[in-house]
Amino acid sequence: MTDKILIFEALNGASSFLKENGREEAVARLLLQHELGLSHAGLLASMREEMDRDAFNRYWQRIEHHAAGTPVQHLTGYEEFYGRSFAVNEHVLIPRPETEELIEEALRLIALYFPEKKIKIADIGTGSGIIAVTMKCEIPEAAVTATDISDQALHMAKKNAEGQRADVTFLQGDLTEPLNGETWDMILSNPPYIAYAEATELSDSVRDFEPHLALFADNNGLALYEKMVKQLPELLKKPGIIGFEIGYAQGEAVKNMLKAAFPEANVYVKKDINKKDRMVFCVNI
Ligand code: GLN
């Protein structure tokens, strides 16, 4: 056995292995870029070069972990969100592209209703910190506070805020509880919303590797919206805006909760790019 291996051979072997194991072949390229520290273009230009046996062994170990279900983001240690890189681990939900659409709508509403941008924003259940950190980066004039019940998640969120030099206040506690005694112009949350009954429909990479505390909620996945909405009338300023990410079947239920709590508000469900109900906004002006 030589101590070198051709890069394109490593890639081909890994791609076939992942395919045989029912995984996406493209992950072979991503993990190879990660191991070699190369961009996509850089990898393409290096295909006929060799890699060390040690590097190959490390690469192959990750390929095997991924074949067994470990999410690629746990192997590389990060995921991109709204153009920035966020560190992730087994204690936080991996950022999803749907949540970028929550950010987009929140930014559109700020431009419309708070053009001076000097507002207070809260992110409930911040996990990796993506919502809070992205809002602070996009609206530096805003004061952003984020909560989470999990110390391990908050540790990750703080690390991500430091990575982006985003000055966010992090508070430990259950949902809105750490926010009590203050009021907010905008309250955002992507809480756990999957019903326990739906666990069997999730892929093994999600069900077996992502934190259940971040995925599941009681009462068909609606329990945490109910709990938050009870507290929100005391926490939201007027004018004030609430934005929730939701499960595709929860639009009507969450809209009705918010409508009951804020009878004068404009409450609407918004679809994601896959045309599924994905967000509910409550604009109480
Ligand atoms: N707010 C974080 C996110 O949007 C965490 C969400 C969660 O853990 N349910 O990714």
TrEMBL record:
<comment type="similarity">
    <text>Belongs to the protein N5-glutamine methyltransferase family. PrmC subfamily.</text>
</comment>
<keyword id="KW-0949">S-adenosyl-L-methionine</keyword>
<feature type="binding site">
    <location>
        <position position="148"/>
    </location>
    <ligand>
        <name>S-adenosyl-L-methionine</name>
    </ligand>
</feature>
<dbReference type="Pfam" id="PF17827">
    <property type="entry name" value="PrmC_N"/>
</dbReference>
<dbReference type="GO" id="GO:0102559">
    <property type="term" value="F:peptide chain release factor N(5)-glutamine methyltransferase activity"/>
</dbReference>
<dbReference type="InterPro" id="IPR007848">
    <property type="entry name" value="Small_mtfrase_dom"/>
</dbReference>
<keyword id="KW-0808">Transferase</keyword>
<dbReference type="InterPro" id="IPR004556">
    <property type="entry name" value="HemK-like"/>
</dbReference>
<feature type="domain" description="Methyltransferase small">
    <location>
        <begin position="108"/>
        <end position="197"/>
    </location>
</feature>
<dbReference type="GO" id="GO:0032259">
    <property type="term" value="P:methylation"/>
</dbReference>
<comment type="function">
    <text>Methylates the class 1 translation termination release factors RF1/PrfA and RF2/PrfB on the glutamine residue of the universally conserved GGQ motif.</text>
</comment>
<protein>
    <recommendedName>
        <fullName>Release factor glutamine methyltransferase</fullName>
        <ecNumber>2.1.1.297</ecNumber>
    </recommendedName>
</protein>
<keyword id="KW-0489">Methyltransferase</keyword>
<dbReference type="InterPro" id="IPR002052">
    <property type="entry name" value="DNA_methylase_N6_adenine_CS"/>
</dbReference>
<dbReference type="InterPro" id="IPR050320">
    <property type="entry name" value="N5-glutamine_MTase"/>
</dbReference>
<dbReference type="InterPro" id="IPR019874">
    <property type="entry name" value="RF_methyltr_PrmC"/>
</dbReference>
<feature type="binding site">
    <location>
        <begin position="190"/>
        <end position="193"/>
    </location>
    <ligand>
        <name>substrate</name>
    </ligand>
</feature>
<feature type="binding site">
    <location>
        <begin position="125"/>
        <end position="129"/>
    </location>
    <ligand>
        <name>S-adenosyl-L-methionine</name>
    </ligand>
</feature>
<feature type="binding site">
    <location>
        <position position="190"/>
    </location>
    <ligand>
        <name>S-adenosyl-L-methionine</name>
    </ligand>
</feature>
<dbReference type="InterPro" id="IPR040758">
    <property type="entry name" value="PrmC_N"/>
</dbReference>
<dbReference type="Pfam" id="PF05175">
    <property type="entry name" value="MTS"/>
</dbReference>
<dbReference type="InterPro" id="IPR029063">
    <property type="entry name" value="SAM-dependent_MTases_sf"/>
</dbReference>
<feature type="domain" description="Release factor glutamine methyltransferase N-terminal">
    <location>
        <begin position="9"/>
        <end position="77"/>
    </location>
</feature>
<dbReference type="GO" id="GO:0003676">
    <property type="term" value="F:nucleic acid binding"/>
</dbReference>
